[in-house]
Specification:
Elements: E1 12-13, H1 15-22, H2 26-35, E2 42-45, E3 48-52, H3 53-64, E4 72-76, E5 82-86
Antiparallel strand pairs: 1-3, 2-3, 4-5
Length: 96
Amino acid sequence: MKDTVIETVDRFVGEAECRRRTNLSRVTRWRGVRAGWFPAPVQIAPNRKAWLDSQITAWLRDRAAGITPEGMAIKASPRGRDAITPQSSSPAPEAA
């Protein structure tokens, strides 16, 4: 019997599905792309960008495993929700 190779085809994830799956707003994802902690979308048409499903799934898997990407800090907000903010690359100034 022949060995069967099953290839999985990656699919594109649009804006609405990306927001639903990650629970991150468009602006937060954009900031994450710029800071390097969220996958960048790819241009699939002149006026259309989308994410690769495999990249979103890997990002979600890393987050569920407690892996915090470089450049991303999670801090508790005063309202009890976590806020995602870019980490500063320079050390905080010392108090006088």
